Amino acid sequence: MKLKFLGTGTSQGVPVIGCTCEVCTSKNPKDKRFRASAMVTTDENKKILIDCGPDFRQQMLINQENHVDIALLTHEHNDHVIGLDDMRPLIFKSGKNMPLYSSERVGNEVKNRFPYAFVDERYPGAPAFDLHTIENKPFEVLDLTITPIEVIHYKITVFGYKFKNLAYITDAGFISETEKEKLHDLDVLILNCIRKFDPHPAHFVLADVIKLYEELQPKKLFLTHISHHFGLHDIEDKLLPAGIHFSYDGLEINF
């Protein structure tokens, strides 16, 4: 299996509109970050999309991806769901509704934001989704066991997802001891890390990630959901502790 980072940025993306900092004006492609999203490809070449933000169309085109079998949604914030309407070409091509897996709360928000996708008589050009409500327990889909990981993002719960020995967690500021039990003995752990310094009320910063790395001891840890406040990729990646790595858009990990 493999995971490709389609986007590794925060809700504003990088560069940020109107910002002239060294990261936002960098010419290095690794300093340009779409909103956070990932594509998991199974051994049977099935495609599992994690989150569908406002950059979904460009992410698919740039990465020459042309198919999604199912989508997993972590939570309902716009940078993680507002691109769902752009799934229409995939839905039209397949002739089937797109399966979306999420908590009940997130599913209800999808209905609220895309009501035209759920009416009995849809406009011919509207998207069509099948909502699948999941709870905080493993579920089977595409001959694969997926384990949700419940984390806290300010005051709401967010699902991370574990596939085999890889776990993907975005938009987290707290992980309970119970949920940490799912994160031991991983080959790859992916964690959000919004910046190096200054505690954040809803996201991990680098000190939090280092502490979790030392506690959970995955073989490799990759940072995602990175803001322009963190610093330049080529400089900061070399300064990270051994075993911790910057991600960048288009990076692919085999697991």
Automatic annotation (TrEMBL):
Q: What is the lineage of its organism?
A: Bacteria, Pseudomonadati, Bacteroidota, Flavobacteriia, Flavobacteriales
Instruction: Report the superkingdom from the record.
Output: Bacteria
What InterPro entries does the record tag this protein with? Answer: Metallo-B-lactamas, RibonucZ/Hydroxyglut_hydro
Name the chain's protein.
Answer: MBL fold metallo-hydrolase
User: Which PANTHER family does the UniProt entry name for this protein?
Assistant: HYDROLASE C777.06C-RELATED, HYDROLASE C777.06C-RELATED-RELATED
One Pfam family of this chain: Lactamase_B_2
Q: Using the record's annotation, list all stretches that form the Metallo-beta-lactamase domain.
A: 47-226
Q: What is the protein's species of origin?
A: Chryseobacterium edaphi
